[in-house]
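Data deposition worksheet. Section B asks for the primary sequence of the deposited chain exactly as it was used as input, without tags or linkers unless they were present during the calculation. Section C holds the resulting structure in token form. Section D is free text for depositor observations; keep each observation to a single sentence. Incomplete worksheets are returned to the depositor.
Section A, Depositor: J.P.
Section B:
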Amino acid sequence: MKNMFMIGNAHLDPVWLWRWQEGFQEVKATFRSALDRLTEYENFIFTSSSAAYYEWIEKNDPKMFQEIKQRIQEGRWIICGGWWIQPDCNIPSGESFVRQGLIGQNYFKEKFGVTATVGYNVDSFGHNGMLPQILKKSGMDSYVFMRPGPEEKGLPGRLFLWESKDGSRVKAFRIPFEYCTFDHLENHIMHCKNELKHSFNHLMCFYGVGNHGGGPTKENIEIIKKLNQSMEDTNLIFSSPNEFFDHVERFKDILPVVHDDLHHHAIGCYSVHSEVKKLNRYSENLTLMAEKFSSVANWTTGQPYPEDMNQAWKGILFNQFHDILAGTSISEAYDDARDLFGESISIASRNMNYALQSLSWNIDIEEEKDMKPMVIFNPHSWPVKVNVEIEYGLFVNYLLPQEFIIEDVNGNEVPCQIIDSVAKVPNRKRVAFVAELPPLGYSTYKLRAVKPTKEFESVKVTDHEMENDRFKLVIDKETGGISSLFDKEKEIEVFKSDAAIPYVMIDSSDSWGHGKLRFDEIAGVFKPIRIKKLEEGPVKGVIRVTSKFQSSTIVQDFIMYKQLNKIEVKVKVNWQESYQTLKLKFPVSFNQRHATSEIPFGHASREANGDEKPMQNWIDVTGTISKQRKDIYGLSLLNDGKYGVDVSGNSINLTVLRSPIYAHHAPFVPDPDEDYPIIDQRIQTFTYQLLPHENSWQEAETVKHALELNQKPQLIVETYHKGSLAQEDSFIEIDQPNIILSALKKAENHDDLIIRLYEAHNEETVVNVDLKNWGRKIELQFGPSEIKTLSIPKNPEEQIKETNLIEDLEKSLVTV
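Section C:
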């Protein structure tokens, strides 16, 4: 007999063509309906996901919450997808995916005594290739999805094993046709019946009114009961994804294996609505920094660890819902998203400030006339050399001296430079210098009112050229692009034609970019209207290029540092166009066929075929210089809030923004004379960096450079005081460059410290981790692309344990 597992569900978009308040009400209505069906039909089973919905019910209808709890304990209300929400599965960071499971699964365990074993993202628009490891280590060994469909991604069957780079596998099932039904359930069941032969005669068929909720109806259930009596060779079973995967477990050893991202559906979602994507990136990184420094301060100075960090994460995670973060909701929904991100950012900012000021206040700083100390904190687990800026002085008080120097912690004078201040008031000055900071620690720099004793060589700058010891950059007067970026040491021209030129592409597709694979039809090019030197000194040089296209302008500040071998570009776009996409093009001079992009906790190598693809903090192209010169050379493009890119031949094309109508879904055809709300018609800012490098991106430490751009050093202007802390210290040391500290936080349910590390280069690695602040050293062995989570007890007599991602203790580790 063939078995069709009938999955009664209600796909609930809490936000989409409606705001979250309407979604809130619909969750209550849908859950009430499901409870009523469970009472009326003894064989009916209901499946639901998303812990956020249950928290809504808990806080707004405690009586219904208790009813749901009872049905869960009976085994008739099935919890699937142990995440806070069904998020976009490309754009969030690796750590955000961990928190989806950590907070979601812990909620389900605390409130209902269960955790989900099946991952469940039925409507998300693509799924990154590291999810199998994240799911497996979050307690889920199976996965249900629907997109991409068969016409978008060829798969060996509905049912297969999905494997990530570390070797983790989950059973995966692609839902046939649709995850919800309205008035055509019988036809849907017959279509699904034809698919049974492709999945070992076992298939899930999803039914129930969805998107705006609703769930299975009485009519749905009666149709299933009636059809089950007439389908002689097929059993229609009221069931759940859990039961389905239990039934097909015996086929696991013969299932085909897929080693890949699951793309491409709705490629426009990688780049539409820049603001929500930048707020997502910023809030993720700010919250991670707040956790790190709060952990250090808690163990070092006794500063209480904040109790509201998970509240910050809940806001971030909710806004990662696939119709919010993907940019496909109505415009009012983004006012709500902005507010919710604001709450998360405020919580993280406040808690990080408490931690940093607690640490800096306990540093022993001597009293000295005409000296102002500055404590600069490094959030990364490796030493960094970074640009730091301080704005100082206010009217007649606390004036910046006419002559001054900046010294490092060892008393060495360092190059510094007065640059244009943010505040346009008398006596307010801004000073830039490059700081060298120890791993996950701090260093104290001092501004002294004394005459400089050293002269430092400056970056050479004109209106169109900049040069430091390693590179020479030339801006073309006609295009406003980089006509030359020459590596003087390797004698290599990085670009084969003008780079960083803003191109406008025709884009008449909807908010999702349905039916599109690329945006490659040029509508026009921005032209420069002003190019001028902005800054010149021993720290950095800046050339500003202002360009215009129709009613839009773009300002790019090209920055070259004297001591840093990367070019930084700060961008401000005033976009006023409609139905178009903006790209920045970077045609490299060396030969290659593939590009490597960062994905959550890993990377993916993809063909340079011009198709739009998702990325995280960076993308890299590396190849040989020419047929004659076989040297390996590459360019990494780093960013602080962009997620869409294509690589066509030798050109990296960064997707800056798209401007369709809000919540426009084909086949609706816009009236060209109508005034619609257009996405991204506003001023926006972002930063990208060009990191030319010899050899591979791994040797160039691209992952670290990109994280330095996204998690910046934190500066506290201090005063003199006694304290127990040295003027420079480091709290962790990791001896392998490919092992990255992802998170440092208090454990969810006890007082241990949680440390999460991941291997970034897909290489087997043995690493020594010195937890200086905690008096522990440990040797760890990582498989390629492996994520490890450790639990560090406060009592040094207790053993360090390895946990999974939801912080279940797994095994004790030996310290060295």
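Section D:
The CA atoms of residues 177 and 191 lie 8 Å apart.
The chain is about 20% helix and 35% strand.
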